[in-house]
Write a structure and sequence with these properties.
The chain starts with a helix and ends with a helix. It is mostly helical. It has one domain: Cytochrome Bc1 Complex, Chain D, domain 2.
């Protein structure tokens, strides 16, 4: 059998395996690829130089700390995408939540000021950490 006859099926199998691995799966609920339980820990404890989200955001409806309450953030994120003032790139609620974390000034909730939220989560947390936060936050419907 020629090398080409062996190489092509192996290459195809590798591509299929990589696509399956990248598609992710929901772990402990929430966004695909993220672990909501770990996201909740990050939310309440932070990691390294990244402060906990809970220092500024409540998950109780109507309870405003420094930033808006994140109660119902999954629903709010979907609604923000329809707001004519929204100029970000997100297409889904999960992407919008991720955008809030890594680029908090893309769209600031009315009634709140820009440049208040910690802006280095995208640098201080791994993409897996951010996936976990998104997974947790999407459980807050």
């Amino acid at each position: 059998m020629s090398r080409r006859a062996i190489f092509l099926p192996v290459l195809l199998a590798l591509i299929v395996a990589m696509a399956a691995a990248c598609s992710g799966g929901s772990q402990a609920g929430g966004a695909p690829g993220g672990n909501a339980a770990n996201g909740q820990k990050l939310f309440t404890s932070g990691k390294g130089s990244a402060p906990p989200c809970s220092g500024c955001h409540s998950v109780t409806a109507g309870q405003v700390l420094v930033g808006p309450s994140l109660s119902g953030i999954a629903t709010q994120a979907a609604q923000q995408l329809k707001d004519p003032n929204y100029k970000g790139q997100a297409k889904t609620a999960e992407d919008r939540i991720r955008e809030c974390i890594v680029s908090p000034n893309t769209y600031v909730v009315p009634g709140f000021q820009p440049n208040v939220m910690y802006a280095n989560y995208g640098k201080d947390l791994t993409s897996s950490d951010i996936d976990d936060l998104v997974a947790y936050l999407t459980t807050l419907k």
